[in-house]
Each structure stands twice: as structure tokens, then as C-alpha cells.
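Hi R.,

Here's the chain you asked about this morning:
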Amino acid sequence: MRLYVLQENMKYRAMKYLASLIVATLALSVWGQTPALEGYTADSLIARGNSYYMQHQYNKAAEYYERVVDMGLESAGLYYNLGNAFYKQKRMAEAILFYEKALLLHPGDDDTRQNLALANSQILDKIDAVPVFFLKRWLNAFRDIMTPDQWAVTGLVLFIISMAGFLMYVVGRNIAIQKGGFAVGIVLLLISLLSVAMTLGRMQNIRKHDHAIIMDTSVNAHSSPDKQSTSVFILHEGTKVMVVDSVQRWKEIRLANGNQGWVPATVLRHI
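And here is the predicted structure, written out as C-alpha cells:
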């Protein structure tokens, strides 16, 4: 179980929060010894954030979680906790930002998706997305079933098993074993190569993610990177946009419905 901050009793929220803390700590452990910041390790900062959250001091909890982020560390669990802390403060733009960051690392997490949907329901802009071609939608959904590490491990395991199949083909003493080993080896080798492709696809999606969240209360999108140009539409905090171009201190953005415009770079925070 993980933290879910809406419509739950305090005991259940506490259990899920502690589980989420463990997830974040385990994810950070891949870095080895967690670095220290002003005498604190990442683990101790998360523990302090946990303590403040349980005391309903959500601003202090978010402060300690963000100090972990400032160390250069990240995990889906950490971003999820940050999103919850900001949601409790009714700071929807920040909540949406960190829920989106959590989903970028762990797209299949139902709790994060549900909390993000609740946060999105409380912002002003309701933008209907242009439908995505079904094959691309299915491929993206399949790619996002697992994290890059999970895809990589899956590919490695299947590759090893496929080699065992080929070994059966080489040393088998009858035709049936040889044919079976060869068939299994070919199929698993192809699936392992698919896993490698999914690993690279997920990593590229994370590295080159070009979406951002509007952080200002409201902002005019212009027809060109100039305050004197025509205002084409107005956006409000919490809206997700795609960044398609950049000119000095301006960003060209595209909405989910296909509309485009220019906004100052300072109103955005990249996911």
C-alpha cells in the first residue's frame, strides 16, 4: 500500500505513507551511499518529511522532500509524496507537476494516476486532447508497462534462457529436443530484443520529455515571442503543455488540442 491523501482515514493514510517512504528509500539506494546535505542524508530528510506530513505540516514535508530532489536524486515514490504534500496545501500546479514526474518514471502506478486526475479536476483549463492513432497509443501503453530497469532485466533474463535453448539445439541427442530448443531460443531471443527496444524507448522518453506545467495563475499565450504580439489564448496554473521551440526567454508551446502560442519561459516548469 502507498499514501493516498484523499478520502481516507488517518490510520490508512499513515500505512500507505510509510510504504511510499520505503519505495522512495529503496529507489534512492541504487545510488549507493546516500549523499549528505547540511549534515542530513536523503533517508533522514525523507524521514523528517514523513514526520511533518503526519503532523499535517504539509509545507514542511514538501520542503524536506524537495531538499532530497536538490541533491540530484529522484524516484517515483519521492515525487508522489511531493505531489501529495502540495495537494494537501491546495497548490495544484505543483501537485500536478510532481504527479507527472512520478508517472514519467513509473507510468503504470494507479494511485498516482488517480491523484493526478483529482488534481486536474480542480484546475480551470479543460482541454480536449487530439485523439492519438490507436497503434501508437497501444505501443506507448505497452512500453510504459514497466520501468527501464524492469525492461532491461526482463531482456537479460530472456536472453540467457534463449541461449540455453540454443545450447539444447547444439547438444541435444534427438531431433525433437533440437527442434524444441532452437524454436524456444529463437522466440525468446526475439522477445529479449523487443525488451531492449522498450528499454531504450522508455529511457529516451524520460530523457527527452518535452512537457511542462504552467505555474503562474494566468498567462497570455502570444502569436510570436513578443509581448506586443497578439494574444491567442489564456492559460491558467496547472495546465500541461508541450514545449516545441525556444527563443531567448520565450517558449513556444502546444496544447493537447493542437493550439500553439508563445509564453515567457519563467511561467513554466518542465516535467
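One quick note: The chain has nine helices and nine strands.

Cheers,
M.
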